[in-house]
## 1
Amino acid sequence: MEEDGLVPARMINEYCYCPRLCYIEWVEGEFKDSADTVEGRFQHRRVDRASGSAPEREEEGKQHTTSMLLSSTKLGIVGRIDLVEFEGGRAVPIDYKKGRAPDVPEGAYEPERVQVCALALILRDNGLECDRAIIYFVGSKKRVEIKISEELVQRTKEAIVGVRSLQMMSSPPLPLLDSPKCRGCSLVSICLPDETNLLRGEDEEVRRMNPARDDFMPVYVLTEGAVVAKREGRLEVRKEGQKIADVPLHDVSQVALHGSASITTPALSELMQRGIPVQYFSHGGWFIGQTTGTFNKNVFLRIRQFEAAADKEESLVLARSFVQGKVKNCRTLLRRNDKEVEDALLSQLGNLAKLTGTARSLGELLGIEGAAAQLYFSRLGSLLKGADAPSFEDRNRRPPRDPVNAVLSYLYGILTKEWFVTLLAVGFDPYRGFYHQPRHGKPALALDMMEEFRPLVADSVAITLFNNEELSLNDFVITKQGTNLAPEGKRTVVRGFERRMNTEIAHPLFGYSISYRRIFEVQARLLARKLMGEIPEYPPFCTR
């Protein structure tokens, strides 16, 4: 119905509540469940089962029809009515709401009244008499009658026009200022109202993001030859017919298959329907690609992404931010943890961070990044304090020649995957970047966004694993050709990475504490806000 240009009645409700919410959910096609939305679906479970079409006019007595889908081409709206009460040719739409009836003179707030009015107008346009509607509040088990007055009809028609006008906008309406509506909104982590207003210079107080961390967790399958299958609402990992592990599907955020691990078609289909991505890695931990369900519908963001990527100056501005964030975080890591680092080296890194802001080309920026990396890696070995910690002289790869480089390469692969998943969820194309240039199979934007997090996440995890003696030489396969992690070593690195991703830290700009996984999403959405013109610049994440 929506493809035919009809406005859903529920979106009229959302528009009256918050036009920005309506735009994000309807035009951009983004949605995120909260406890309220899950409970709302549960409360609707009975009326969501359709019981048939409308009875004929001449039927006598009162009848009910549940989950009735009707549209009005005259008004250009469509709605699924939870329950319709019929008596002769007269109909009363009944809409279920999970909460309690509010203590207001009208009996319900305007968004709910406008929504049921839209449903009443749909019934009228389908030849039925309808002069009232009912909202049933499950929380208080109360029926509230809404009279379909001319005033309410006029407000509903204005709202329909308002929803349609959103389709003409290239970016969402600005967020509400310090509104209590934002606190309980399921899309607050997508909208980022306080964060956007702060960066626009319009609001100084940023309320804590809830939840601070993601309760859903990735599943890593590292056992060679293991098969992931679906069993009665759970994912099972088996090898040679023996169950290795299982996990409830509702707890899974993503599935990462390493080496020869595989997945059955029913399990893959179930994950795609649930919007859970499946990633594939090589034996050495290099991120290969991903299988996912319906792609994010926010085509406007991808249009802006490609326009910006084709603009050399706009790409350079963003690339400066990515590299500056990386260099600053490298300097901070050394300043905090290297007690013997010379002030001169820290000064050099500080100067290079400043130079990123005046780089005149991507080539010049690449040179600045290379100089900073050489200084940084020259001191990284001094951070390894464990009694049996291996030595580290310089960064090398393909293949890595020592245990530290093997761990860094493996972690960079996992970090690339994490950013790939985040960017897809937000609506970006991970393959079109601004700093890293397009190349077949290269997730350039994921590599862009992970730059500022290489020292904070990947390098920090590697240092911690060695210093805490969680890794030893027994966790590596060392040959003349190079060094790779053994299976148990990979599991140890993955555990360390997930521990870091779930660590809550204070956001340097917004003040509240959230996990690194949540920070990734916030940074991706801030990049989207910059591209859509809502904030003046992209703020890199620079730890204090």
## 2
Amino acid sequence: MRVPRYGPGFERKLPLTAGDALVLLLLAALIALGARLALRVPAVVAGRGISLEPSALPWYALFSVGRMALAYLLSLVFSLVYGYAAARSRGARAVLMPLLDVLQSVPILSFLPVVLLSFTAVLPEAFAAELASIVLIFTSQAWNMTFSFYQSVRTTPQELREAAAVFRLGPWLRFRTLELPFAAPGLVWNSMMSWSGGWFFLMAAEIFVVGKRDFRLPGLGSYLHEASAASDWRAIALGVATLVLIVVLLDLVIWRPVLAWSEKFKLELTGNDEPRESHLLDLVRRSWLLDRLTAGTLGPLAEWIDRRLQRRAAVTPPVESEGEGPPGLLARATLVLLAALALYGTWRALRLVSALTAAEWLALGSGLAATLLRVTIALAITLAWTVPLGVLIGSSRRWAAWLQPVVQILASIPATALFPVLVVLLLGLPGGLSIAAVLLMLMGTQWYLLFNVIAGAAAIPEDLRLTTDLLRLSGRDRWRALTLPAIFPFLITGMITASGGAWNASVVAEHVTFGARVYDTPGVGALIAEATAHGNYPMLTAATLALVLVVVLINRFLWLRLYRRAEERYRME
């Protein structure tokens, strides 16, 4: 029997394609439009007062968890729809994957002013602030889940696809009974990472100031921000303790049961002697009421949906998902319209950034180089420790039971709440703030790589592990022959999302406010933060577009080549 492929299935193409150029032009158009709308927002928007009393923490925690849940549901739906469309259609993939590549590299904190001020220009202030907060949390959760689901759909084993064809499963049943279950383990681990990423940027999403415009929402993020600004160590400790308590409860009530449930979708010939355990899941499985609800309501409803969608698929002409035929008239007209809009938006963006002086452009270039160096150092350190620990957690149920909750807690603590402490401690050292900036980038990037390595190690079939035992391979040979080839595609996916997280974290790592003082170090993140604080839209637009262009070039010339290598040499078929 063949074992599943692990390659992410990227198509062979030039490092920088016309699709990339079109996506960049569209992004420039969107940023220019957002900046234009932002100029129409009233000059002053009053923010809400945030109480640092302990009695306010339960309510703030409820608000934050609610925003996180709504953002996660939005991210999950987006990941399933977007990833499926990109995986099943070559024409859609040519546009959607470069677009996803760009979106995951856009710094959240540089995108926030555009989203927030644009919403406020057309919606009531309170609703706009809530909606912008959810959208910004969504941008910290969606990309790694989408990459994971796309990779799983593209690497579904061929024999399972052939079985689905033999049983004449339509698109819906193939998705529900084959592709979604096969993607479940990786999607669960990346969902856990998405929640951790959402906590990391919660402070930025709940309290934000652009010039004199103050947008503030009640929540744990705004509570920790206010406590940090007031140097109130008691409030910081209470806020972090509340967050840790929430993370532990979510692990016990949601993630452990979901992880144990996802074990049944692992493709292997031999069962594991140490299956994941969840007492809550065992309790739920023994629930008579749940059985009655499933048999009487949920089961018939699912069957009705299956019949309706399968019947619709049977009368709908099949779509050639892998063909490369010439685009139709509608597709050509759509591309022409998008190109025209992109060119117009680019012209408006160029007019906006034309106000920058030569000195500002020089500062932008040097800032990009400084941030690139810090990102490289952070990724090297991340790679050195996450691979062995991730393989240990993913391969051993005993170690996972102890280390998984610890990793979730550490990944969920907003480093932005603790970063001022690092700044104060390291300012006296040579290059103190630069070292602190690298540390904060680590806090924002290492978890993406760690969770993907765990997912890759956990997906190795048990029969292959037993084969290495029978061959009596040494630890070094086992790593060389099985572990590293198996996790390599997951490793590259994690490096892409970690790289995007590092560039995102640069905005808060290179420009820090503690009490009444502001600390910054040269970098594109500091330029974006300063431009945001002073409402300097030309610099904000130029810095964001320059950062996105650099990240896209790195992804195209480095990560895409490694993806191809994973597909050609480290695919297990």
## 3
Amino acid sequence: MKRLLCVFVFVACPLAAVMTYAQTRTAAPPAAASGASQSGLQFDALDRSADPCTDFFQFACGNWVANNPIPADRPAWGRFDELQDRNNETLKEILETAAGGRDPQSQKIGDYYASCMDEKAIDAKGIAPLDPLLKKIGALKTANELAPVVAELHTIGVDVFFGFGSEADFKDASLEMAIADRGGMGLPERDYYFRDDAKSKELREQYVAHVGKMLSLLGVPQAQAEYAAKAVMRLETALAKGALDVVSRRDPTKIYHKMTPEELQALTPQFQWQRYFSGIEAPPIYALNVTEPDFFKALGQTLNSTSVDDLKAYLRWHVVHGSAPVLPTSFVDENFKFYGAALTGAKELRPRWKRCVQYTDGDLGEALGQAFVKEKFGPEAKADTLKMVHEIEAALEQDLNTLTWMTDATKREAMTKLRAVADKIGYPDRWRDYNALRIVRGDALGNSQRANAFEFRRQLNKIGKAVDKSEWGMTPPTVNAYYNPLQNNINFPAGILQPPFYSVKSDPAVNYGGVGAVVGHELTHGFDDQGRQFDARGNLKDWWTAQDAKAFTDRAQCLVDEYGSFTAIDDVKVNGQLTLGENTADNGGLRLALMAYMAGVAAPAKTLDGFTPEQRFFLGWGQIWCASRRPEALRMMAQTNPHSPEKYRVNGVVSNMPEFQKAFSCKAGAPMVRQTQCRVW
């Protein structure tokens, strides 16, 4: 439930006897006929009527998509969601046991979960828990009085006007510094305020109606709530005008502006920054990264031109918006109506237990994660995964040594960076201490606010200190992974190191095509269009010769053009610039995983399940991306998400690989054999 300020972390990247695809179609092996997989591939996911050379995603996933409709409470459904649901079932058992009071070591997570689940108690309290905040907002008389109120709201996780926290200094990544970033906008991305197509206009109308409804649920008279909602829209649109678009924010040089507090004050003279710093109890701040100076100029102008009544309406809206998940049922339902149904197309609200598992993981993730790791991630899996990581790093070293487009000077710097990458597998070496966080059974909103305050102050306490590279940005049960360019490390939570991504029982070809490609993906992020701008120590530093930088950009443009030609939904194309980093990581990651797998094959590997090792490798890749998305979710993904839709993550990559063409005996000119194949790494 907390909103972490995370400006620049990437979340979250075979030789054997030959059997052609034609042979696998005409003679299904006994294992396939019986439904028992020897390799770990999922037979019932395959659409054997499809030609892999025409549409590999359909071949690998066609029956999975047909047989796994999107649940009513979901905007999308895929293998990531499937695994996260399984992990959540484990977390539910852990939390129910903890809530029953049978384990004193887990009282905090049990009390938090039980409080979240007690819908009757939440409904009975109504909006009374918000009264102190609402009274403070109501008492405001001028914009000059905003700073202490904004400070209190930020502390408890309410996103108004801007974001504030700590992050490594881009130019000296060994030290934590304060960071002020844009914020305070309720729509998913700044261009949602400005697109003039019919769907975007409709969403803005729905957003204004939603804001008005939420304010009316607070007790604001309907006519006043409707007027206030329009004022909120005007204010947020004014903020958005000063904000960078999603593509521009991918350039680290555009979101790093080191300033003194005095310089920030000059940018926004209408806001009393020292009163804000005092309100959040910040340590001494001598410099900070003001990510988007133009945004803060727009903030100041907006504060100057907006009436106090409209500012109050904006603050009330964000209080109720930020608190909605643990408010009474009417607020939860209205929140879902816009953020679930209108934006993503979900048909039903998720069951309460699933939401409460998510909130507990978000606020007490490392306390909950300890129990998860004990049940789901043993030492054998950790050791095996680490071995795979080292093999894939060796593959990247081999790749760098053989590049023809990179000069020796840049290669040396790239090799230095690669050898400095730190590998973090499964869970932290040192678990977070939550002793200072007070959880009160029966106080769901208070628990959420105190958890947000605990995390906010934990982040602020880092300012001016050395960066702790042992910390994790994801909780252990999370089905995801990430690369942190400011720390130059790759991170793989225990949650994703499970089937279908990885299993100690699966054939190595399938594991390398699955989690191996995920490892390669995160490693490649260190050398994509963003990551390549940071050196081995995590500093924003240009270590490329002009010749090599141009060679990289030329190769990257091929990916921009390729993915930009794909249609996400209706007339909305995939944004090749927005998705460049992830597409680079997908293409490089799968290639590195294949190199690592091939290097580890001591003797010709056998055909299993009717597929050669190379075919199993590519199917391992394809089957982790089996997924469907609702039209609304696809539209939002294309406009805001740096990842391409799953179909193109599969087909876009394999169509660039001659190894795939050979593995499935694809003829020149087949859809999965691009005439101009893109390759960066």
## 4
Amino acid sequence: MGEDSRPAGTHASSGASTGMFPVFAILGLVICVSVLVLLLMQRAIERASRQVAVEDSIVERLDRTLSTMKDAETGQRGFLLTHDEKFLEPSIEARRRIQQELDALDAIGASGALPAADVRKYRALATAKLAEMDSTVALLRAGKVNDAIDTVRGGAGKKLMDDLRDLTEQFVLAGRMRMNEKRDRASSLIASTDSLFGIVAVFDIGFLLWAWQRLRREIALRNRAVLDAQRRRELLHVTLRSIGDGVIVAGVDKRITFLNDVAARLTGWSVEEALGRSCDEVFRIVNESTRQPVESPVDRVLQTGLIVGLANHTLLISRDGREIPIDDSGAPIREADGMLRGVVLVFRDFSEHKHAEYALRLAMEDARAANVAKDNFLATLSHELRTPLTPVVMTLAEWAADSSLPAPWREDIEMMRRNLDLEARLIDDLLDLTRIVRGKLLLNPSLADVDDLLQSVAGMYHGQIEAAGLKLTLRCEAKSHRVFADPSRLQQVFLNILRNAVKFTPRGGAIDILTESGPDETVSIHFHDTGRGMSAEMLARLFLPFEQEMDESARRYGGLGLGMAISKALMEAQGGSIAASSGGPGLGSTFSLTLPVVDACHVEAYPKPESVDPASRQLLKILLVEDHEDTARALKRLLERWGHQVSAAHTKAQAIQQARAVPFDMLLSDIGLPDGSGVELIREIRTFSRAPAIALSGFGMEEDVSNCRDAGLDEHITKPIDFEKLETMIQRLAASARP
């Protein structure tokens, strides 16, 4: 069996491959050689062109140098004629440019493009010419006008300029000759390149004839490739059917060519029914909120040719009327040539995500409601705690004003006042924390003296410091110690730090307070104690609310853990800072505060703290409305001690009746009354009286103050009442109401 048993097609393919190899090899070799020769010629042409460009740049530079020298000479001549220095400005600029051109010519000479000796000669002439111009200018500036003119008339400068022109012309002529030679060479190379292109074209035509024959055979191979592509497409369809998202494929006419099982289940259309239908019919989507139809991603992809996606507020309306929240996107399908052939749409059921989103929204609403409830609770708690403190504070204030009391009683009164102040401070801390969280911290800045405030704080705690067996040292060494801040808030920070130092320093310890001038116009205040110190963990949590050491020795000191958090917020709100450090447990603590100081030259520009001038005090008829009998009695007694006439009412109805019956100069009213509120009261009183009014309330939140002012109350003061502050407020309002 001598015959070859392989198929004929195989024989032909093998023979063609064998016969074509030498042709391809020869053609490839010819092309490679021709390309190499063309490349070499092109490089030679480029090299000749570059040389021409170099020669041209040399000629241009020489012309530019000569022209610049003329500019310099013109400036010199203008100065000689006019004696005006402004004519030398072009000459000065020309000298700078001449120096640059000479340096460039030196570089050209060093490269061999120009003879180095000629370049040196050119520089010598140019330098001599510049020196000649400098000498005439110097003579003229020295007042030797005739000498300068004689120098010019002597002709040395003209001769130097003529020599420069001659040498420049020699350079230019030689350069142009070289340029012509190199242009001729470039032209010759271009002609040779054209010839080579012709030869290559002949070979290309022969190759095209052969390729046409070869193309006929390739068609058969392409048919087999089409079958392979169909098999790959089928594999892709199988893959798309198996993924977990819905997939729809449509052509540029929006008619569906593919639909997987997930898409069929979500849309309610079977694969057989959906094929050939428009996407608008099968994939119907509306906006979740408006229920209006939404532009399909298919339309948007066909319009823009880009990948697009819709926000997750889209509902898919299935064939049976079900509404399914979906997340979808569309992408273009392009051929290898970049032409758009269709769109692939991918979407998924978003129901579980929507349920989770809804649950999260409910949780956030619950959290907001809890926050409002917390604020209301704190406001109510503040009111209920402050109200019983008011009569006690006022009674103690009245006793303290009685000079007949024995000294031991006065000490007891001061002790009770300090503890009541502490109680009020704890209430204020709770409210301050709420204000800080809500970004509504109240400040009343004015000019304050840090040294005075520290001395006041030290005086307030003097008794407790002595009772604790501690030694306090106050050193005021800062040169500038006036700041623009809220004095009461700043004092609150100092008290918080000093109170902690006293609390955590054992008997026999020491507390040192130092002020010193800091960098950048600041004052630094340092509180150092020899107390129990702090661990690194505690330092990291020190300025967080409700944070305290958790060991038994710390718990016995009590407190809410708010003082340092509030102090940090107060310092930062006033442009300052606070930091704490400690060597560790048992090694004491240091608190460092920094505030910007006020320039002594601008002290008068800052508002002064409010105070009452005894000579200008007015005695008023005051209507006091207070339902808490103890508070009403104590406040009435104190106001009368100050010389005011006070009528007391315990309900809204009583207050209105008294206000209509007897004119009054000022109204002091509680907000919470048995038969209404102080807000309702002032609104009714404002219908017949414009007398100033002050709210006395245990509610101290910003909303409470705002509501009082909106209703017509002029001021708001929070219980327990600072009587001196109240009297200052009364006198200020009375003065402003005076005709």
